[in-house]
Amino acid sequence: DTAVSQTPKYLVTQMGNDKSIKCEQNLGHDTMYWYKQDSKKFLKIMFSYNNKELIINETVPNRFSPKSPDKAHLNLHINSLELGDSAVYFCASSQRDLAKNIQYFGAGTRLSVL
Amino acid sequence: GNSVTQMEGPVTLSEEAFLTINCTYTATGYPSLFWYVQYPGEGLQLLLKATKADDKGSNKGFEATYRKETTSFHLEKGSVQVSDSAVYFCALSEYSGAGSYQLTFGKGTKLSVIP
After folding, report:
1. Exposed / middle / buried, residue A30 (Cβ in 10 Å: 0-12, 13-18, 19+)
2. Residues of B with CB below 8 A from A10's CB?
3. β partners of residue B13
4. Do A41 and B108 touch (CB under 8 A)?
5. How far is it, in rounded angstroms, from Cα A6 to Cα A94?
């Protein structure tokens, strides 16, 4: 019944590894997002994805890549993990219509890079 | 670019106290404004929103009014409860193309309410 679900909830890995975080929404939304929340709780948009069009925050390293197999999923792949990638990553989704543009968030994935 | 500035926390209040969390914004267009709340260990939930000037958003006893003249969207509640303890984020939403409305968040304000 969860509207936006992310897996895993916790991810601990070594520097240099490649990892993925999955996100699924069952709300029928057409836009999905990834956000990064740092240790000071600051939230920053990483990507938004709509109808196969990707909008990238230019500050995001190209080691991060979103992959969308279908409208309900937007997975986040991270290559060559670095210590600074440790954060909580949130997936969100929304409808295109401005009047309904409320973003619904997943519970987050806490990534720890050792 | 767009930005949101909200008061630094943490804020500690006694139960039934009055709450104000200040939020001001800078935007190039006409954004929608939001307050999101994050309870410990959870994702963000929408608390309230306002889409145009002078709109008042309200939910669960919280209110905020979209003030274009002062570019503000301050959050208020008349009587806080222990269950309101959380981190509160002010945010604005503007169209970013391809049907996407990206949120720009403030840095969050942690509220602790003590009995």
Report:
1. middle
2. none
3. B113
4. yes
5. 16
Q: B100, A31: Cβ pair inside 8 Å?
A: yes
Is A109's Cβ below 8 Å from some Cβ in B? Answer: no
What is the rounded CA–CA span in Å between residue A101 and residue A3?
15
- What mean pLDDT is predicted for residues B37-51? 91
Q: What is the pLDDT of residues B62-102, one digit of tens each?
A: 999 999 999 999 999 999 999 999 999 999 988 777 667 77
Please state the three-class secondary structure of chain B as a single string.
Answer: CCEEEECCCCEEEECCCCEEECEEEECCCCCEEEEEEECCCCCEEEEEEECCCCCEEEECCEEEECECCCCECCEEECCCCHHHCEEEEEEEEEEEECCEEEEEECCCEEEEEEC
